[in-house]
Design a protein that fits this description.
The chain is α/β, with parallel strands linked by helices. Strands 1-2-3-4-6-5 form a six-stranded mixed beta sheet, sandwiched between helices. A hairpin with a 6-residue loop joins strand 5 and strand 6. The protein is globular, with a radius of gyration of 21 Å.
Length: 302
C-alpha cells in the first residue's frame, strides 16, 4: 500500500474537506470547532468554492482555502498553513475584512452584512500559550461587552496537540490528531469517538493510492517547500543585515536595538518549531538565541 499523503498539505486538505461529496465531513469538523466556543450546531453548509479537477497545485488562480456559508448566511473561511509565512495575524485581518466587506452589493445597507468566521489551522506555534485552540472576538477590555458578533477568528496550532495520548471521547482534538498524522493504529479509536472521521480517512487512503492525486500532491508539496525556503532565506538575510548594521553602530547599542519584541517573538516561534521536531534543548538555545531555561519553558505541558 502507498504511503499516506499528508492531510496538512492544503491541496489534500481541500480534497478531503472542501468537496461536495464530503460536505458532511466539513460539517462535522465545523460543529466540533464551534462547540468549543459555545455555539449551536450547524445543520447545513453551502460550499462557495468547492474543489474541482480544475484546481491545479501550481495555478495561481486556484484557491485552496475552503469558503462556505451556513443556512443563516454566516460566512466561514477555513485555511491550512503548513509553513509559517509570518504576520499571520495581519494577513488574517486583511482577508477577513475583504470577505466581510465583499458581501455588500450595490444599494445594500450595512445591516445586510452577515457574520464572518476565519479558521486558521497552523502547522506551527504562533500564540504565547499552551492552548491548541484559541478563539477571538471583539469585546470591551474592562467589562467584556461584545461590540459585534460578526467577528470571529480561530487559531488551531497542531504543534501544541499532544499526539502521544489518544482521547477517550469525541471532540475537536480527534480531528486535529488526524490532521497531524496520528498513527493508523489509533485511527479506529479516533473514529469511535468521531464516526464521520472514517470518511475523511477513507478519502485520504483513496487519494494516497491514486496516481494522479499523488502527482498533484507532490507538485503542491514542492511548491510549498520552495515558498517556505524563500521566506526562510529572506528572514535570515534580513537578520544578517540587521546584525551587521547593529555591529556597525556599536555592539552594545546594536544588541539593545536587536532585542525587540518582534525579534524575540520570532526566536520563540523558531524554538517552538524545533521543539516539535524533538531537537535537543541545547541546540535549540544556540539556534534561537534563547536561554536553555527559556526554551524548556516553551515545551507543551504533557
Amino acid at each position: 500500500m502507498s504511503e499516506l499523503l499528508d492531510p496538512r498539505n492544503d491541496f489534500v486538505f481541500k480534497r478531503i474537506f472542501g468537496s461536495e461529496d464530503n460536505k458532511d465531513v466539513l460539517l462535522a469538523f465545523l460543529n466540533r470547532t464551534f462547540a468549543e466556543s459555545g455555539e449551536s450546531p450547524l445543520t447545513e453548509i453551502i460550499l462557495l468554492n468547492p474543489y474541482t479537477d480544475k484546481d491545479a497545485p501550481l495555478d495561481k488562480q486556484s484557491i485552496f482555502d475552503i469558503w462556505a456559508k451556513t443556512a443563516t448566511g454566516k460566512h466561514i473561511n477555513v485555511e491550512m498553513q503548513l509553513f509559517n509565512k509570518y504576520d499571520i495575524e495581519k494577513r488574517t485581518l486583511f482577508y477577513w475584512s475583504k470577505r466581510y466587506s465583499g458581501q455588500l452589493q450595490e444599494r445594500q445597507t450595512y445591516k445586510e452584512l452577515k457574520k464572518c468566521v476565519t479558521i486558521n489551522i497552523l502547522n506551527y506555534s504562533f500564540l504565547p500559550n499552551d492552548r491548541y485552540h484559541n478563539v477571538f472576538h471583539l469585546r470591551e477590555d474592562h467589562t467584556g461587552i461584545e461590540l459585534s458578533d460578526d467577528f470571529e477568528v480561530h487559531f488551531m496550532e497542531l504543534s501544541k496537540v499532544n499526539d502521544t495520548s489518544v482521547p477517550v471521547e469525541g471532540g475537536l482534538i480527534n480531528w486535529l490528531l488526524f490532521l497531524k498524522g496520528a498513527d493508523k493504529s489509533n485511527w479506529e479509536v479516533l473514529t469511535v469517538n468521531e464516526p464521520t472521521l472514517k470518511k475523511a480517512m477513507d478519502t485520504l487512503e483513496f487519494l494516497s493510492q491514486d496516481r494522479e492525486a499523488r502527482r498533484l500532491y507532490e507538485e503542491r508539496q514542492k511548491y510549498l517547500h520552495d515558498e517556505a525556503s524563500m521566506i526562510e532565506w529572506a528572514t535570515e538575510k534580513g537578520l544578517k543585515k540587521g546584525l551587521e548594521e547593529g555591529l556597525a553602530k556599536g555592539l552594545a547599542k546594536g544588541l539593545e536595538e536587536g532585542l525587540t519584541k518582534g525579534e524575540r517573538q520570532k526566536a520563540v516561534e523558531i524554538a517552538r518549531n524545533m521543539l516539535s521536531l524533538d531537537i535537543e534543548i541545547e541546540v535549540i538555545a544556540k539556534a534561537s538565541g534563547l536561554s536553555e531555561s527559556e526554551v524548556q519553558s516553551l515545551k507543551p505541558i504533557q
